[in-house]
């Protein structure tokens, strides 16, 4: 990879128009919108889109109205415009997938037509893995496309090997067996994304991801929310596969940057007073616990986690979503008042960056993994399903910046894991490793860093294509 940042191509008016279409889940909206802001800052006109229901929540939280010219950001502009899909609030995951499969393609084609009629024709479409039809719609419209993979390069490799018959995973009851793939550590079946296992209950979701892998060569670019220094082994190994996948282009970590935080994609409103409460705590004293926007614990698991946090002897900030709060033990909130703060949602990037935060008890979703890594905060890993299983393996055993709660979930296991991460004999080493990864992450996205170069090279290519120059599809691969 070259060491010098490429010289930016001067963007003349009108700027090329990039249209990003995103699955309506918080874990997809966050990285996709953050990538949109990186592209806009480099001089493009960028439209971010998702379903009408999710769009209404985003506009309510961000204060940026849908439609119109959007708002200036860096050298470019970012705007919001959503699918006319009449979704309503489709809460069941399988129902949402069916809705998107039927209404998504025509609604997206219509959105592209609206851009042409408004005098801002789309130069490139960027989709993500739960919307495999986005690439097809762009292809039918004669528009080049890209895909943003919102999980790790390691998980990409696991899916790719599976789709192309390059790996056979062990039986689910054979916990001692190991599978070895190029560029990855030896993995047990418990480390494999659960969507690839026979017991996976989310069949429609898995099917959509696998469809993306079967058609991914239709995309001209495959971005990934990671950075070269973090996953260089797997990125280097992928071109040697047969058939080889398109080159992965690391553009992460796609975490919130202070200068672009005014345009956010929060679909839930963060609780007031969180940062003020953290300000009143001692440095590196608070246990932050959040299992994301999808994971749901049983009442028994929630109670064990509640009592484990309370008995840790440390102040804690715990995100318990409204759909789970009724399962809290009776009288719990009163019993922890003053030393524990329980909120329905938090500004996670600000919490992790706060000096009072000591560790992060996390489900190990890839967004949370990158956010804690960028902030330099050790973890207590509690994965549930999907790619979380693989991410936990990397956080604990490869990145060496945390511990794992032993199964089954019991209050004493929670207490022991928290103590090991904050005050145990290996706690300082884990904290040092976390700080080192934080420095590497910040370097990658800073001007001239590896991910910044990849973003700039893509923008340069889109500008060159829009001006009639011949773009070289392999340009970004060389940058890696």
* Count of distinct strands: 14
Radius of gyration: 22 Å
Beginning-to-end CA distance, first to last residue: 5 Å
Rounded average pLDDT? 90
Poorly predicted ranges (pLDDT <50, ≥5 residues)?
A: 469-480
Shape: globular
CATH homology superfamily of the largest domain = Glycogen Phosphorylase B
Supply the key terms.
480 residues; alpha/beta; Rossmann fold; 2 domains; eight-stranded mixed beta sheet; six-stranded parallel beta sheet; 14 strands; disordered C terminus
What does this molecule look like?
The chain is α/β, with parallel strands linked by helices. It has helices spanning 26-41, 52-62, 93-117, 133-140, 153-163, 203-215, 232-237, 274-279, 299-310, 322-325, 332-336, 348-353, 366-375, 388-398, 411-422, 427-445, 450-466, 475-479, and strands at residues 17-21, 45-49, 71-73, 76-80, 122-127, 145-149, 221-224, 248-250, 286-290, 316-319, 340-343, 357-362, 379-381, 402-404. It folds into two domains: 17-263 and 446-479, Rossmann fold, CATH 3.40.50; 274-442, Rossmann fold. It contains 18 helices and 14 strands. It has an eight-stranded mixed β-sheet with strand order 3-4-2-1-5-6-7-8, sandwiched between helices. Strands 11-10-9-12-13-14 form a six-stranded parallel β-sheet, with helices on both faces. It comes from Lolium multiflorum (Italian ryegrass). Keywords: Glycosyltransferase, Transferase.
């Amino acid at each position: 990879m070259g060491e010098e940042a490429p010289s930016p191509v001067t963007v003349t008016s009108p700027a090329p128009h990039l249209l990003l279409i995103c699955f309506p889940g918080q874990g997809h909206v966050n990285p996709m919108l953050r990538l949109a802001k990186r592209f806009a800052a480099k001089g493009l006109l960028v439209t971010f889109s998702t379903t009408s229901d999710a769009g209404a929540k985003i506009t309510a939280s961000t204060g940026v109205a849908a439609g119109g010219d959007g708002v200036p950001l860096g050298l470019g502009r970012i705007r919001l415009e959503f699918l006319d899909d009449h979704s309503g609030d489709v809460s069941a995951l399988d129902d949402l997938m069916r809705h998107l499969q039927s209404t998504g393609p025509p609604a997206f084609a219509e959105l592209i037509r609206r851009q042409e009629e408004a005098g801002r024709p789309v130069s490139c479409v960027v989709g993500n893995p739960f919307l495999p039809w986005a690439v097809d719609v762009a292809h039918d419209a004669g528009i080049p496309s890209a895909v943003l993979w919102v999980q790790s390069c390691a998980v990409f490799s696991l899916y790719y090997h599976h789709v192309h018959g390059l790996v056979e995973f062990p039986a689910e009851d054979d916990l001692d067996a190991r599978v070895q793939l190029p560029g990855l550590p030896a993995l047990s079946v418990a480390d494999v994304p659960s969507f690839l296992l026979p017991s996976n209950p989310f069949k429609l979701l898995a099917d959509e991801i696998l469809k993306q892998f079967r058609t991914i060569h239709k995309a001209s670019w495959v971005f990934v929310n990671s950075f070269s220094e973090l996953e260089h082994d797997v990125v280097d190994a992928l071109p040697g596969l047969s058939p080889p996948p398109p080159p992965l282009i690391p553009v992460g970590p796609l975490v919130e940057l202070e200068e672009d935080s005014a345009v956010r994609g929060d679909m839930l409103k963060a609780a007031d007073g969180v940062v003020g409460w953290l300000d009143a705590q001692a440095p590196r004293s608070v246990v932050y616990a959040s299992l994301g926007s999808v994971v749901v614990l049983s009442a028994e698991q929630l109670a064990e986690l509640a009592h484990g946090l309370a008995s840790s002897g440390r102040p804690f900030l715990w995100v318990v979503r409204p759909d789970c709060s009724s399962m809290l033990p009776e009288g719990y909130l009163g019993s922890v008042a003053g030393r524990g703060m329980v909120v329905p949602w938090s500004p996670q990037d600000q919490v992790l960056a706060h000096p009072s935060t000591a560790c992060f008890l996390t489900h190990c979703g890839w967004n949370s993994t990158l956010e804690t890594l960028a902030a330099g905060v050790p973890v207590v890993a509690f994965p549930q399903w999907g790619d979380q299983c693989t991410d936990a393996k990397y956080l604990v055993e490869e990145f060496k910046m945390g511990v794992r709660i032993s199964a089954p979930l019991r209050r004493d296991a929670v207490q022991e894991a928290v103590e090991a991460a904050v005050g145990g004999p290996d706690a300082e080493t884990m904290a040092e490793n976390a700080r080192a990864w934080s420095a590497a992450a910040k370097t990658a996205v800073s001007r001239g860093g590896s991910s910044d170069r990849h973003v700039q090279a893509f923008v340069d290519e889109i500008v060159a294509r829009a001006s009639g120059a011949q773009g070289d599809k392999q340009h970004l691969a060389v940058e890696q």
